[in-house]
Amino acid sequence: MDDTFIVIGCDNNCIEVFDAKSGKYVRSLLGHEGGVWALQFIKNEISNEHILVTGGCDRAASVWNLTTGERRHVLRGHNSTIRCLKIRDDKIAVTGSRDTTLRIWDIERGTLRHVCTGHQGSVRCLDISGNKVVSGSYDSTARLWDIETGQCLHEFMGHHSQIYAIAFDGVKVVTGSLDSHIRVWSAETGACLATLQGHTSLVGHLQLSTRVLVSGGSDGNLRVWDMDTFECKQRISAHDNSVTCLQYDDKRILSGGSDGRVKLWDIEKGTLIRSFTQHARTVWKIQMNDTKAVVILQRDRPLGPNEEHNIHVASHRTVIELHDFDLDKEQDGRMTLATANADSEEEDDTSGSILNEPATPSTQILEA
Questions:
Q1: Against a cut of 0.85, is the pTM above it?
Q2: What pLDDT, in 10s, does the model give residues 45-68?
Q3: Separation CA 38–CA 111 (nearest Å)
């Protein structure tokens, strides 16, 4: 974990950078004029610099030198909120927006390469593999694009409602939808290979490896799927309400829910290893590596005697925790990095999203 950062995009227009080893605040990156909804980084192997790309409500993406805090480029062109972004390498990034378009950028020069049109609703999710990018939209379709030309190679049609999650390994495209189904598609032919059924409501979270898919739904369940046979290997009743975030490795699944719980699961047995954090109102975001996990959650804030009837005083706070855990220990070490009293804004998307969906902070562990 040497030379490792934690980067958090917030609704107060700021990007906060912390040292993951010490938990100490490093710097704030200022420049966005609205909440930051998406971020990702890439490390330049030649210069040894971390390049960060961010996007959000101000309709612009920014390219930062994370090492120095310098904002190198502002990428303008979208007509609405940037809802998602992915970086291919230290030269190319793709943004998806509520304006229904994708934009492919040269982040080294700060220039636009392609505008990808075709979706009829907000672009909700992206994933990249090689020279291809896939997009999922509230128009109930997904599309596969060639990054070099900007051309649409396939349109994946079959869902009956908005697509909220997408995963792509270069061979298979996987989509999760409000219709409660997961569909697996061939990136080569565009054909639907399988429809995975079992969730009973929105499938909002997917993580794909070559042979394993993990899905999380608003039904509170995690499911582990064999991508060779398309069979469900594990059904885990993980949370009392929606699964709001998940991440897995070869042995473990870490999940957060709107029940305010963070839980670590054995991926083979489907059993609970440990619960993390004190109870919260909701968990917004998690990210882990081998030994650490970052958790962003919301907790109630005790009100003073003069605050109880003041509607302008927040009754909750956003808490960012860094957990240093060891599977051989009974307890994890928890460090609170920062707290804030501001609530996240609610999403109100006219293209068909679920109202009152929180505008969750974006988090990524940046590791050298």
A1: yes
A2: 888 889 999 999 999 999 999 989
A3: 19
